[in-house]
Amino acid sequence: MGKSKSKSKQMRKVRHEEEQEEISKLNRWIDSQKPDSGTNPLSLPPLPKDAPIGILQDDKFSRYSGATMFKELPLSKRTQDGLKRANFSKMTDIQIASLPHSLCGRDILGAAKTGSGKTLAFIIPILEKLYKERWGSEDGVGSIIISPTRELAGQLFDVLKTVGKFHNFSAGLLIGGRREVEMEKEHVNALNILVCTPGRLLQHMDETPNFDSDLSALLAREQVLVLDEADRILDVGFKKTLNAIVAQLPKGRQTLLFSATQTKSIQDLARLSLKDPEYISVHEDAETATPNRLQQTAMIVPLEQKLDMLWSFVKAHLNSKILVFLSSCKQVKFVFEAFKKLRPGIPLKCLHGRMKQEKRMGIYSQFCESHSVLFSTDVASRGLDFNKAVDWVVQVDCPDDVASYIHRVGRTARYLAGGRSVLFLMPSEMKMLEKLQTAKIPVQFIKANTKRLQPVSGLLAALLVKYPDMQQLAQRAFITYLRSIHIQKDKEVFDVLKLSIEEFSASLGLPMTPKVRFLNQKIKGKKVFGKSALLESEDSEKENDAEIPSEKLDIVNFKEGSVDRLKENLEIGDSEEENLDKGFLQMKDALNGSGPKIGEIEDLVPATRVLKKKKLKINVHRPVGSRVVFDEEGNTLPPLARVADRNNVDNSSLLDQDKREEYYKKMREQMKHVDKEDKVLDRQRRREKRIKEKMKRKIGSMGLEEDGEGEDDLSGSEGEGKKYKRSKIYFDSDSDNADTTGSKDNAGIITDSISIAEQEALALKLLGSMHS
Ligand SMILES: Nc1ncnc2c1ncn2[C@@H]1O[C@H](COP(=O)(O)OP(=O)(O)OP(=O)(O)O)[C@@H](O)[C@H]1O
């Protein structure tokens, strides 16, 4: 026993000495071959193929600036082993250009296209620096990586674990929305590397005992701070949080900033106190700002046809992995729920900032694994590297700006993979195309094949009749979309007054157009802020529609003949939207076409007062006993909205309740009738399908091939002559809880496709007949 103890002690001592020797060698290597400041290692010739690596004769070392393989870099064996195990051998351009500088301790401001390997360009220097400092568990935090979103932080954490597998550092993922903050507080001081979102990091700095003082002591020993998606973290949405974080960090650290769209603002950089940073922009002179293997298209899609086009697109690409971007989480919720009920025949998922964190992470990993459609807000637009390649990025709503476009399309065509993207532009947004082209983004403008468009608005209208919850979702989607356009900064591209509001409302299936009044661009001499100026979030997962101060909107209560305003002090993170939707939303009677149009509203309504800005902080002065109620996603409901919910008050605010009821009654009767017809049609269709399947198998067994599905077709897969009506049969078979659609079969329910059991039976029968 005693013998083996002393043996292992001796082994540890030997290992320690070997490591000490390795570190000393690495330091000498790095020092002796330092690239000159301001030079770009990419411009150097690569090392000759069989050139010796590392220590050469007379204590000289090989050149590592210009190296193209990881093994040619002065890296510890532990890091080299981690890289090898993850199958990383050849460096990407940003790695070739930045690692020689970062390994010798320099600050970096790195920019490279999406999917070009920026993550390793900052993970490797962190591991190396801590290793060479012989950082141990008792040393606490030695490096902090800040990411704008939780999913991205999770992904970075995974890369860190993979490449750092053979190191002994402890690392922690600190992201918002997790319940275990108290547990985190107990452990955080013992962690060596933190991967975090800004809000959670600040929370620990403020609340965790000794955390900030430890940081000061440790970071004074020149450790590493990384900002991934630096321009996003430095922009106005994170301004306060980041300033508070940076104020608590000592200046003697190494700072690494990376993004595909890097900030060039001197002020931003000054905030971080960079020391003579190396500006590394590897694709600055490239012909395009986006990956070369990315095929990008744009087409005109009027607002009222967006869902038809999206539906047709999804139906045409049932074997693909598609990421769909919409402008707000209300849009995402509505489109997801509606499409789910329409069962397109491919699993559907949604991701937005109002979901619980566990669910978000779950959706993210599911999307990594399977062919499906993910409807998302910009929460998925940056940094995410979905495991199996995304085939298509579809931007249904125009991105805020060129940078946002680059990040969204960058979710496909990563590393050496190809990918495709399509951008729906409304006629009023054509200026965006010009901006993209000016920014060296090769977008091909194509004409949508509207002949093959499969209209869904009729089906949506029927859905809304059948599912009252859907009405609310549709109204919210309608309002938040208009609002998102209204508050856009770039008025050259976004103009809410150019939108066909009534048609848009009808396209969502709404029987009447909800009325919303937007203020003029200036409120009492104050300029309306652009969206980014409104984002004062801690983490970017707080989205547009949760972040809009209520000054921006006036909601008009026509019924009262006056203007109502929201003046409540909402309690925690209240969304003004709940008020809009539940208590103040006014509907226009679409049946008789009464009520003003958006352009007319100005004349009808007297001047209004400015709404009070909602409070995002906990209201500590809240009267004792007033309860904060949370919805299923953890959002609070404002008191008025709760009352409205209880008493169904929103119905009373409709212009003509009787007419609305009458409308829905009529629709329900029509639906029953159509349902009957559809069931007959479906039975027939299934019979035909079975026969077709049989034929297919026979043809297959005879060695003949059938035509494959046309993936390039953007506007529909089901052939021109096919009528869409049959989809209505699925109303009865919807399962609200399922994330997947179409392909799932509920007991006793008619499904879109022939069941697996049926297929197997058929196959067996055919096999039997072949052998007999
Ligand atoms: N040297 C390498 N060899 C092989 N694959 C690599 C290498 N470096 C990175 N990759 C792979 O390339 C993909 C993209 O890398 P990464 O996520 O770091 O890109 P990025 O530049 O950070 O993208 P974004 O700008 O979107 O955040 C990942 O799947 C990663 O595993």
Automatic annotation (TrEMBL):
Ranges for domain Helicase ATP-binding: 99-280
Domain DEAD-box RNA helicase Q: 68-96
Pfam families named among the record's database cross-references: CTE_SPB4, DEAD, Helicase_C
Comp. bias regions, Basic and acidic residues: 15-25, 674-685
Ranges of biased composition (kind: Acidic residues): 704-715
Span list, region Disordered: 1-48, 674-747
EC number of this enzyme: 3.6.4.13
Entries under SUPFAM superfamilies matching the protein: P-loop containing nucleoside triphosphate hydrolases
Segments of skewed composition (Basic residues): 1-14, 686-699
Any one GO molecular function term: hydrolase activity
Keywords, ordered alphabetically: ATP-binding, Helicase, Hydrolase, Nucleotide-binding, RNA-binding
Domain notes: The Q motif is unique to and characteristic of the DEAD box family of RNA helicases and controls ATP binding and hydrolysis.
PANTHER family: RNA HELICASE
Listed name of the protein: ATP-dependent RNA helicase
Origin species: Salix dunnii
